[in-house]
Amino acid sequence: MPRLALYALTVCVLAVVAAVVSFTQGSWLGVLWILIAGVSSNMTWYYVRRAKVGRTAAGG
């Protein structure tokens, strides 16, 4: 897995944890964390697919 994908996945997991903590404390700020988790999840899939296409184009 590419390094940028791992970073984006880490941000996604941390954002989900932050959203859970925020919602359990009764704060609506968790909505923002859910949005950040969604964006970072999409970034993770993008970098994984881009690396897969790069390997296929390189003949591997």
From TrEMBL:
Keyword Transmembrane helix: yes
Keywords assigned by UniProt, alphabetized: Membrane, Transmembrane, Transmembrane helix
Protein known as: Secreted protein
Bilayer-crossing regions: 28-48
Superkingdom in the source lineage: Bacteria
